[in-house]
Design brief:
single chain; alpha+beta; eight-stranded mixed β-sheet; five-stranded mixed β-sheet
Length: 859
Amino acid sequence: MPGENLSRDEARERAALLSVDGYEVSLDLRSAVGEDPGDGPRTFRSVTTLRFRCDEPGASSFADLIAPSVTAVSLNGRDLDPGEVFDGSRITLEDLAADNELVVDAQCAYSRTGEGLHRFVDPEDGEVYLYTQYEPADSRRVFANFEQPDLKAPYRFEVRAPEGWTVWSNGAGEQADGVWRFAETEPISTYITCVVAGPYHYVTDSYARTFADGTTLEIPLGALCRKGLAPYFDADDVFLVTKQGLDFFHDHFDFPYPFGKYDQAFVPEYNLGAMENPGLVTFREEFIFRGKVTQASYEGRANVLLHEMAHMWFGDLVTMEWWDDLWLKESFADFMGAFSLVGATRFANGWITFANRRKSWAYRADQLPSTHPVTADIRDLQDAKLNFDGITYAKGASVLKQLVAYVGEEAFLEGARRYFKRHAYGNTRLGDLLAVLEETGGRDMSAWSRSWLQTAGVNSLTPQVLLGSDGRVEELAVVQEAAESHPELRPHRVAVGLYRVTDGGTLERCARVETDVDGARTVVADLAGAEAPDLVLVNDDDLTYCKIRFDATSLATLREHLGSITDPLARALCWSALWNMTRDALLPARDFVDLVLRFGGRESEIGVVQMLHAWAESAVTHYTAPARRETAAALLAEGARRELYAAGPGSEHQLAWARFFARTATTGADFELLRDLLAGTATVEGLDLDQELRWVFLEPLAAHGVVDEKALAEELTRDDTASGKRHQVRCLAARPSEAVKAQAWAQVVESDALSNAMVEATISGFSQGSQRELIAPYAGKYFAAIERVWAERSIQIGMHVVQGLFPSLQQSEETLDATDAWLDSHKEAAPALRRLVLESRDDLARALRGQACDEASDQ
């Protein structure tokens, strides 16, 4: 649609011309209930009054709005013809005055893709639930505005809603005469305004804090979810973490929470993990656990709660000027999520999860052809949408962890405090943050910034150990390498740990030195004379961002003693390094799987266990030589079954191994056990087969044709809920049938009838590792369809289709050639679309290299 993809240059021109005084937005959502209109999209009335100033009277500009129709437009009292000024995504504004008032009366469409104002009908009781999701630029689907982060303004919302509903927005609300009116917000950006409406279940609490000057801050707290999830909603734990987080950030930021109340809404069919709308944070409802989960799930939820809370300062109070500096909010929130998790909650081992899970995401993203500096070059909104990635989040957070080691924790936090006070309710660029860090840290930040924020790629650090005739370390050096495509060698503050096998068989640290690594080779002088180590762990304690490599002695030690490392963080770092070596075709996939089977059952950290499960599955599916893939899969299932019975009854480890066993089941005996467990004719002591676990067991049975459509329908009668329906749709699409695959493909690619959640579930079921031949014919169909899908569907659905249906299971040079042919013949395709295809191509090429490495280990 013309003008829908706002460019950075257009945004800068508009920001130089205009400044906004405020918005009044009136929404009539009573149309959310009742019969489907049938003759077009279901719409709601949106009336916006926008007051703004223009530095050049007589100039022209535009407002943003994506809507099926506009009823009326008035500029400074002049009625404009909507047919002339509105093109479907922009409203042309000509002959502007110094002070302006724009009034737009529009019919906006409810969304089924999670973008704009999403409408969800609960299949359990027929109730309708609404919520908004805007980032980076979908508030224009709900009201007319200037859709860019640097044109901040205060907002007043009023909402008419169906009888019996409650409505929430960023500010506190009151209902009178059927209208909900909300307090004016502080100046904020368009993308963090929010409305949630419906018959939600709502729980309240409060937070109070008295500061050193005697003033007291009171914050009303609320938490809400669909009525159907109320029996599972552990709001007390949500409020506990919320209060711990507020205390932590008040202690460290010296800037009281500035947005009044603090509601947290858990909403259905959500595209993201969460969104930091001030005063009304939205989360995906899967954070409300319907069945038993491990502590890793509770830790993950707490991390997201704290990540979004950190945004109240990093992102909401102080906002990046344009999406180039998205890291100024996301990297900081990701770092602060882990920092506060460890510092304020019961999850004291949060840095282990960060090292193992978040950094894994970053390392993958930083080796893709689409990698970019932390401070990215964001040309337009499609670029912005795709840059919510592992670089902006996890690498940026890792870089900040390195920065804390570089300048010191107190200097870093004092820099944050000055940053908030200096730029409150404003917009910033990279230089604004570096300026305060130079003040507080006493270091020149320009060189550090060039190396860490303005260049892409990940370095690898490898130890070199030279032993003297006395058997002690004569010299220990760290060798730094970089990929040819991104040759930057960076300064690293690292800890180098030496480990030895004790008489008791454990692998324990015997020496540790912190040092600065810079350039291609750095000698760690302080370790000269140390006892000969069995393992050298570069980046011990995970201070920097790098791929760890091992010398031959260390790798041999890990093959025999990985499970004996006593420090859980060191153990997690070694697992992560071995996985990176597998992905880089330096370690055969069979060796990695063997290590998981030998030592995974001894891993104490449940989050690490679950990460190992995911990596081992990926190793078999993508990196194992095709000739031995079936054998490797059977070994994995056999090992998972063994650990299931060996785990403590009722333990979270038992639950994790049960889920892993289901995902890896390959033989008739495996399927028989799963069926018997579902039927209750077999049991595993302590294993509670709740509804969520039942669906986990059913998916592999469906994928291998052991259960049919009737069995899945019967299961849905046990769980006739929104969650149950998503599980059923995924299992239905997983069945090994040509007709099933054709139907799933048509529902996703040829139709837009499915909601975002159902598209995701269908795609997940469609692609099964055991069905490579069955879905092979869709490789050609994929390349024929994706450009049309990208043009016709929303960007969120386009991303689901392009990423989820790429023929990644057709692991051959032919598929690689077909991908290259599409890229060569579609050089003018949307850059964001090409990026997604390039990323998938890179994963495929990496898989083929890994398979070659695995095959070579036979020779």
